[in-house]
Design a protein that fits this description.
The complex is a heterodimer of chains A (about 270) and B (about 325).
Chain A: H1 22-34, H2 37-60, H3 68-96, H4 100-106, H5 110-145, H6 156-181, H7 184-208, H8 210-219, H9 221-224, H10 226-229, H11 237-264
Helix pairs in contact in A: 1-5, 2-3, 2-5, 3-5, 3-6, 3-7, 5-6, 6-7, 6-11, 7-8
Chain B: E1 2-11, E2 14-24, E3 29-33, H1 40-47, E4 55-60, E5 75-78, H2 90-101, H3 106-114, H4 119-122, H5 131-143, E6 149-152, H6 161-176, E7 180-185, H7 188-194, E8 197-202, E9 205-210, H8 212-218, E10 224-228, H9 231-240, E11 245-248, E12 251-254, H10 258-267, E13 272-277, H11 281-289, H12 299-302
Parallel strand pairs in B: 3-7, 3-8, 5-6, 6-7
Antiparallel strand pairs in B: 1-2, 1-4, 8-9, 10-12, 10-13, 11-12
Chain lengths: ~270, ~325
């Protein structure tokens, strides 16, 4: 009847097509983190803030406190605080800006996009960290100009705990909140509630109750991380255990739920 | 090429798509037509794996979408032209797509040329695009990987008449080269002009499918509009045969198919200046078939004197 003999094939030949390599997906996700005004200026702003504080510190601090060690604590604090927002925007924009429709049709295996975003966040964080260390060195040089005789030696524990580990934990927390909430504004609010309001509330409760003060580091992740960012930068066995238990509550649990949700959510 | 097999998608008790099956052939443009909320978009979302099916499945060229490696190279998809980061430029959006698929950046310029977005426009951010420009960009994005299957949801939405004509030519040419095109619309005349085959959907169910001619021939023509040089003579001749005739404008409305009216006129040697079916063709058919899924009553019932409400004088 209306059957038309057509030379076109009814089968798609996919034998010659390779899967999109993960490395390419990571590269794309890094590009997506930086190719919007919001993403680019956030990263520039973070680095600018590091520069600003380094310069102020070089002029304001006592000459005896201007070792590389001192300067390197500055990016540690700034990055750990603000880099997670870059990751939050990278993940939540798929839903808030709706480009997830395209992202997940070009790579329908969502787990690969999740991994790519995770790796992109880590690579970006490492890159910003290296830049921040360079800025800390420039700050130390500026310290010489303003009259110090700095020590260039570095405490490995400080670099690992206060800079690397605390920044990475921040990135992971940002990733967990982003996947769980999947809305840019909501996730950023939740992140500030988690980093600002929660530790303040715990601090107040700890003042009121000694029992709570003992329990707090076991259940509150910010409190548990204090040993990472304060001298001597090497948590004891008990402190590591506190990081692990509170981390399970505030990082692993939301991360697991968030990824589970991201795998199922309908991107509209 | 696209094979929808018993597809059902339920949200709670509500079936957005209810046991839908159809096939899109290569070398043809298939139009997917239905009123708002009929299930077109949901069906297309299931096709590309964004929405899981409750029952049934869709294969494209024999594969589930999920199993197609680097799917952008095989299936071009445009579900919503606005579903892109508003802060990215048009060029950046295409570049991300091209790089994901592993294509050279020159492909981006080719596609911009194809959809007639110039370099200045390509540098603007998506939030500053008109709907028509977004559609062009979306079509460019779908065509990036030179796919053999195209799935486009409401692609003509927002295009000006020249844009619609351009898209018609583009898709026809694409199908003539052996490509498979599925495009949805809620506007009949858009699809009627482009599609070789049409699938009509209402309330999640397929209500009719086939070529335009097949659809029309299946419709019953029971009423005609006719005008003769001598209307009175024709009225008498028709009434003699037992047909109901009434005046309609400058002509007559007859409760009989055009072929009967023509026969009567020929027998009586009456000169006709106009004779056509009163059933309005595809438009009427479309409205009838999707009647129970229309949101609005037909105009005759809907037109009433506007009620005076409080604040109307303000």
């Amino acid at each position: 009847m209306s059957t038309v003999a057509t030379p076109a094939p009814l089968q798609l030949d996919i034998s010659g097509t390779a899967r999109v390599p993960l490395s390419r997906l990571v590269k794309i996700e890094m590009r997506k983190a930086l190719d919007t005004r919001a993403g680019r200026w956030l990263v520039i702003g973070i680095l600018g803030l590091v520069v600003l504080i380094e310069v102020i510190y070089a002029f304001a601090a006592n000459d005896g406190d201007k070792d590389l060690q001192d300067f390197i604590q500055i990016p540690g604090a700034v990055l750990g605080y603000f880099l997670p927002i870059v990751v939050i925007m990278l993940v939540t924009s798929e839903s808030s800006q709706r480009n997830g429709l395209v992202t997940f049709t070009l790579e329908p295996r969502r787990s690969r996009i999740v991994v790519a975003k995770f790796l992109a966040g880590i690579v970006l964080a490492l890159g910003v960290m290296v830049l921040a260390v360079v800025l800390a060195m420039l700050g130390t040089l500026l310290g010489i100009v303003t009259g110090s005789d700095p020590s260039w030696s570095l405490d490995g524990n400080l670099v690992f705990s206060a800079l690397f580990l605390s920044t990475m934990i921040g990135i992971f927390v940002g990733f967990a909140l982003a996947t769980l909430i999947m809305n840019t504004a909501g996730a950023i609010v939740a992140y500030f509630a988690y980093t600002l309001i929660l530790p303040t509330a715990v601090g107040l409760l700890s003042l009121l109750s000694d029992t709570f003060e003992d329990i707090a580091p076991w259940i509150e992740f910010n409190t548990a991380q204090t040993p990472l960012i304060s001298s001597p930068y090497s948590p004891t066995g008990e402190e590591w255990a506190q990081i692990a238990t509170s981390g399970a509550i505030w990082l692993l649990l939301p991360l697991a739920l968030g990824i589970w949700r991201l795998m199922r959510i309908e991107f509209k | 090429m696209i094979n929808v097999e018993g597809l059902t998608r339920k949200y709670g008790a509500f079936a957005a798509v209810d046991d839908v099956s159809f096939v899109c052939q290569p070398g043809r443009v298939t139009g997917f037509l239905g009123p708002n909320g009929a299930g077109k978009t949901t069906t297309m979302r299931v096709m590309v794996g964004l929405t899981p099916a409750t029952h049934g499945r869709v294969t494209i060229g024999g594969h589930l979408y999920h199993d197609i490696p680097n799917p952008g190279l095989h299936v071009g998809v445009l579900l919503d032209a606005s579903a892109q980061h508003a802060g990215r430029t048009g060029r950046e959006i295409l570049t991300i797509g091209a790089q994901t698929m592993g294509l050279p950046d020159s492909r981006v310029d080719e596609m911009l040329d194809l959809v007639s977005l110039d370099q200045t426009e390509a540098k603007r951010r998506l939030r500053n695009y008109s709907l028509g420009m977004k559609q062009r960009l979306g079509i460019a994005h779908a065509l990036l990987g030179d796919p053999s299957v195209l799935i486009l949801d409401e692609p003509a939405n927002g295009l000006d008449p020249a844009g619609i004509r351009w898209m018609r030519g583009l898709l026809k040419g694409y199908a003539d080269r052996g490509g498979t095109v599925l495009l949805s619309s809620h506007l009949l005349n858009e699809v009627e002009q482009i599609a070789d085959e049409m699938i009509l959907i209402g309330r999640g169910k397929i209500v009719a499918s086939g070529t335009k001619d097949e659809l029309l021939s299946s419709a019953e023509h029971k009423t005609s509009f006719v005008t003769a040089l001598d209307n009175e003579l024709l009225t008498k001749a028709l009434q003699a045969k037992g047909f109901t005739v009434s005046a309609a404008g400058t002509g007559l409305r007859v409760e009989a198919p055009p072929v009967e009216v023509g026969t009567v006129a020929a027998e009586g040697a009456i000169v006709l200046t106009d004779l056509r079916s009163a059933d309005g063709g595809l438009e009427e058919l479309f409205l009838t078939l999707t009647e129970d899924s229309q949101r609005d009553d037909l105009p005759a019932d809907a037109v009433q004197a506007p009620a005076v409400t409080e604040g109307a004088q303000a």
